[in-house]
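[scheduler] slot 2 assigned
[scheduler] job type: sequence-to-structure, two independent chains
[scheduler] chain ordering preserved from manifest
[runner] begin chain α
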Amino acid sequence: MPYSDLPPHAFWRLCRDDSQFRVSDIYRPKFRLSPGMKVATAGSCFAQNIGTYVRTSRLRLVDTEPAPKGMAPETAARFGFGLFSARYGNVYTARQLRQLLQDAWSGSVHDSAIWQRDGRFFDGLRPNTEPEGLGSAAEVRTHRLEHLRRVRQVFDETDVFIFTLGLTEAWVDRRTEVVFPTAPGVAAGTFDPQVHAFANFGMAETFEDLAASLDILRAAKPALKVILTVSPVPLTATASG
């Protein structure tokens, strides 16, 4: 009879009621993490929790932009140090990840992502990493190029990359298709409805962006292992209606 010769882990009720049940009985990972492996993290805010866990484990967390010595922990966190493997801030969408990797390997700095507020200049692709802003657009470009170099360094060093998918919604520059982590005008910059458009990436677009991101990473490091996770944190707000 169908089902009669299946093992216990094929039946949800038996799994649920068995106090000795192990997830490994129904899920077999493609690879295992071994003590000493180097792990890099990126993604939505929930990815910060993964980094915290990795730091307390026998794995090694890659951090190519550590805080300056002597900086207080609360100040370091405010300036984006120690939250992820580099100071990219929250990378909410697969499109944002793809853009970050493309920029890192091409050394591209987008003028449309240099924002202003109160006479100070901000990197619109990570506007909260310098909460007080910088003194000029040229300084933003210099910081951005150094950051992109550190992003490449992350993948030179790491064995495993853990990316946490957080959102499908984003704001995009209509002229350049540059995608931002926050709407212009929130942390800095000015929102212009003629320039900035709301985007809600569908499944096909997200799949394409992830595939393109993996192509970049595997071309740079063929042996790289990748783990995708999904953030359980609910939306604060949605612009999709």
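[runner] end chain α
[runner] begin chain β
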Amino acid sequence: MKRFYCPKCKPAELAIDYVMKRHCQVGGFCFYRLEEPNGSDTCFALSILHLLGIDFRDDNTLRYLINLQSKDGSYHSIFTAYYAIKGLYFLEEKPEYDPTEYIIKNIGNYKFNIDRVPAEVISIFKILYCLVDLCSVLKIKIAHEIKHDIVNSILSFKNEDTGFGYIRSTLLETSQALATLEWLDFPVDALNTEDFIRKCEVPSFGFTGIPNTSLFYIEHIYGGLVASNIMSYKPRYTGQCADFVRYCQNNNGGFSRGTYGGISTIENTYYAVHSLSLLSGLKHR
């Protein structure tokens, strides 16, 4: 993951300050600044600090993440596992107990049935994305037949517009599908998905979440840049992407979902910082 580090850049300094003010004394992070840490805020916060070149060390945060795991190596949920293990990764640490069996078991449970995807999950690929990412981070080898089944399952949701999604293609689902396939060593260049990415480009803000719509939110900019990076495609409106992201930053240093002054969250701040990191990398291609 390329770091976006600009020591004289005020937006970066403000983002660091925003994140650190949401660090809990008991360990972990909470975007609404109470002593109520949660896995997602903690993982996104650690990722932001990593991207911005901050060497963060905190024993309480380390212990908080480790304690999210049960002694049998399992977690309360796949997402709890994802945020805990990824958070530990940014701290250059590993879980106390081997989670391999738990991760592989859940890959088998979720790779096929669309009805098993929770209603609150807006991307059908998010669970697989998390599980395969964890395999990549922990260097867990996925059996060939399971890998083959996962690839075929994802490819079954590739649409005629070269994007991915259930019912219709979306930029977020496409970016997660591409990332998962790339982790599985699938030749994503052969998919020609840059055609769909182009359909999502708009000159006003950079990207929209679905072609011919006005879905201009920070996660769509992020998804478009991630997909473009995977496909080695240089977006046409990088300046507009950068401007949109910067306009999402609030006075408290955090970033909101849109440019209309919404509430800052650590998750949206992660999308912003990672987007600027990806844009920084595009300039050097």
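[runner] end chain β
[qc] chain β: Residues 1-7 have pLDDT under 50 and may be disordered.
[scheduler] slot 2 released
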